[in-house]
Amino acid sequence: MTVYVDLVFLTNLAVDGAVLMATAKARRIMPSRPRLFAAAVVGAAYAALMFWAHIPYMYSFGAKVFVSVAMVLLSFGYGGPLRFLRNFAAFYVVNFATLGGVIGLSFLLRSASSPWGAMTFTPDGGLILEWQMQLGLFILTFLLSIWMFRSASETDRKRQQLDQLVWETEIRIDEESWTIRALLDTGNRLYDPLTRIPVMVMDADVWKERLPTGWSERLKQEPPDKLISELDAHASEAYAWGGRLRLVPYRAVNGSSKLMLAVKPDLVLLYRDGHPPLQVNRVLIGLDGGTLSSEGTYRAIVHPDMVQADPVSSAPSQPA
Q1: Terminal CA-to-CA distance of the chain, rounded, Å?
Q2: Distance of alpha carbon 316 from alpha carbon 309, whole angstroms
Q3: Left, alpha or beta for 12 (phi > 0: left; psi -120 to 50: alpha)?
Q4: Residue of 81, 82, 98 lying closest to 21 (CA atoms)
């Protein structure tokens, strides 16, 4: 078998550089390109030495850790023991994730006449998996593994950021209460124009059983003022929440003026770890006929004025 050391060096230079950049992305740091290049050169030279020179203990566990430490220090600096350990751990997580992706994709793309085609058993009962991959396919699967890792990391980061804005929300009306997850939206500036009461928005399906029959589905297509008009004087008195219904005008994304059906609750309580519970007495709950979160992460949107409310311990006991 002929091994071209220059190809080994260049391939590992590209791979190590991509791994280091993915590590920097995962750790949300921005090292300089010369530092990344220098660290990638160290890793590539270490891989090439395997075919160029025979040095005892060069490929022992301690030597591999030493080279990894050197690469991490060259790329990201030291910055203290905790920062270094986090960078070092992230470097190995990216390595394991991408290498595992390359091997997994290569076996997925490989065809064999039987499941034992790529396996060889040694005389003492060991198992050897044959793994061969052309350079082009290796590069393709490696880049795909890097992309999958970065996509998963970015999705996890966005989910963590989203969780920081989510509040547990308890809505109380008469003797009933509903607890849902709600997202704080600092861009929500919807108020009732007459009373200047802030309006939080909630999926209408939450109250599917408490609204008149079919309203939660009809709100997706029909204007709420049409639904209100169907409640004549007698029906309004029969409906327990008839006196709580409101119509709140708002401006849609396309600039057109619309109406939103809203309900006046007795109070709303907001809960979040590390914060005292907040009691909101002056609020309307607008009902959205669609789905606010396609992933079901939250069912309502909290108005920013609501998080300025008094804690429960100091809030008035009766709704305003």
Answers
A1: 85
A2: 11
A3: alpha
A4: 98
In terms of phi and psi (left: phi > 0; alpha: psi -120 to 50; beta: otherwise), the region of 29 is beta
Place of tokens 């929440």: 241
Dihedrals φ, ψ of 17, to 5°?
A: -65, -45
Contact 241, 261 (CB under 8 A): no
Q: At what angle do helices 61-76 and 33-52 cross, to 10 degrees?
A: 160
> Is 156 a residue of the active site?
no
Pairs from 304-310 (Cβ < 8 Å, separation ≥ 24): 304/184, 304/185, 304/186, 304/188, 304/189, 305/198, 306/198, 306/200, 306/268, 306/270, 306/278, 306/280, 307/167, 307/184, 307/270, 307/278, 309/270, 309/278, 309/279, 309/280, 309/281, 310/278, 310/279
CA angle 303, 304, 310 (to 5 degrees): 100
Phi, psi of 271 (to 5 degrees): -125, 140
CATH numbers and ranges of domains, the chain: 5-163 (no CATH), 166-308 (2.40.70)
190 vs 196: CA distance, rounded Å = 9
pLDDT, tens digit (0-9, with 9 covering 90-100), for 112-151: 555 555 556 566 655 455 555 555 555 666 666 666 666 6
pLDDT at 230: 82
Candidates 16, 156, 163, 185; catalytic one: 185
pLDDT of residue 38: 92
What is the reported pTM? 0.53
Tokens 């939206």 — which residue? 185
At 79-89, the pLDDT tens digits run: 888 888 988 88
Q: Which stretches within the chain are classed as H helix? A: 5-27, 33-52, 61-76, 81-109, 135-163, 215-218, 224-229, 233-238
Distance CA(62)–CA(84), nearest Å, equals: 18
The answer to whether 182 and 298 are in contact (CB under 8 A) is: yes
